[in-house]
Amino acid sequence: MAEESNQQLYVLSVLSALLLPPTFITGLFGMNVKGLSFAEDPRGILFVLGLEPPVGSGDLRYHPRPRHPTSTRLELRRTAWAMI
Predict the structure, then answer these.
(1) Where are the bilayer-spanning segments (predicted)?
(2) pTM of this prediction?
(3) CB under 8 Å to 20, separation ≥6 — which residues?
């Protein structure tokens, strides 16, 4: 049962990784920008793309990964690699 569950999660992870770039691109170009700052500026897309990395890294710093209460980070990493 656990092996089957691991296999299904692996397939879902691969599919998620494959679909992430097209989802990002369609979300970026599908934004409704009417009335927003830089909407009429030809460099507006560069502003949005330049703003994303700092906002994303700030989000990762503000919401760090939860740690397992009884395991160290190295043990969790070894476990994750063992499942692959």
Answers:
(1) 12-33
(2) 0.45
(3) none
* The predicted structure's pLDDT at residue 54: 92
CA distance 70 to 21: 35
Given CA atoms 38, 58, 52, 24 in this order, what sign does their dihedral have? negative
What count of Cα atoms within 13 Å lies in the side-chain half-sphere of residue 41?
9
- Distance (Å, whole) CA 12 – CA 60: 23
Cβ pair 3, 77 in contact under 8 A: no
Q: How many domains does the chain divide into?
A: 1
Give CA–CA dist 84/78, Å, rounded: 10
Burial class (CB in 10 A: 0-12, 13-18, 19+), 65: exposed
Sequence-distant (6+) residues with CB within 8 A of 7 are none
